[in-house]
């Protein structure tokens, strides 16, 4: 019996959006994040392997892309996002952030470079309860030694961008979940990063409030921001340009859906 060629074989797990796949309009833009053969192993205290969370991941994200990272629970999404966000280091493989090999930087150099390059948004907002909204947003500038007047000017600018210019003096607990996440996004943008990274940014929000965040991301993307977001929600991923699906620590598929925004 003649075996069908791969082209004739239907994909075993058809991608939901295979029909809408398009070429990458950002392919000529510089690469913001590039992983080559990245592995991440978690070890037991006795030195034996506990989990191989990433088993050889190759991904290149170009400036201006809007990417969703999907996959079942335990597939390695957070592990991958933490490596992309320089919150954790790969066990093996190379990570080029904005063209620079992070392995070649010392801790201080990496911390500075990370601060200028990446804005990171957490599912749980991670705001400081005692500080006002304005001061929360300005925190990264404090660590960069920016003077108070300039910190204030830039915090107001970013809070206005996320639609919270009227809430400067509020404390986080006086805001809704969606508003708190918008404060966290304003904070992530304060140092004018090249890329915004978010692990389940709508995960703690109801769908209507999650919508506020997606609308904001779409606006940022239309203005040219590169966005990488972990989500387990198909309706959220549907609104991105590209979906990377992880399975058991490897890329199962990587598809471009459409172009959006300014491109
Ligand atoms: N600090 C850790 N120590 C040991 N194992 C870990 C650690 N963090 C994650 N793992 C394991 O690595 C694998 C990938 O975990 P990860 O958190 O990246 O998954 P995920 O895709 O983000 O899942 P979820 O959708 O539930 O958030 C899992 O098997 C997990 O148990
Ligand atoms: Mg996770």
Topology:
Layout: E1 31-43, E2 49-62, E3 66-71, H1 77-84, E4 92-97, E5 100-101, H2 107-117, E6 118-121, H3 133-143, H4 148-161, H5 177-189, E7 195-199, H6 207-222, E8 226-230, H7 234-237, E9 242-247, E10 250-256
Parallel strand pairs: 3-8, 3-9, 6-7, 7-8
Antiparallel strand pairs: 1-2, 1-4, 4-5, 9-10
Helix pairs in contact: 3-4, 3-5, 4-5, 5-6
Adenosine-5'-triphosphate (ATP) is lined by residues 42, 50-51, 53, 71, 73-79, 232.
Largest sheet: 6 strands, mixed
CATH superfamily of the domain at 64-88 and 112-256: P-loop containing nucleotide triphosphate hydrolases
Unreliable stretches (pLDDT < 50, length at least 5) are: 4-16
Share of helix, binned = 25-40%
Q: In percent, how much strand structure appears in the residues?
A: 25-35%
Ligand identities? adenosine-5'-triphosphate, magnesium ion
The CATH topology of the domain at 64-88 and 112-256 is given as Rossmann fold
Q: Count of DSSP E strands?
A: 10
Helix/strand-derived category reads alpha/beta
Second rung of CATH, namely the architecture of the domain at 64-88 and 112-256? 3-Layer(aba) Sandwich
Report the CATH C-level class of the domain at 64-88 and 112-256: Alpha Beta
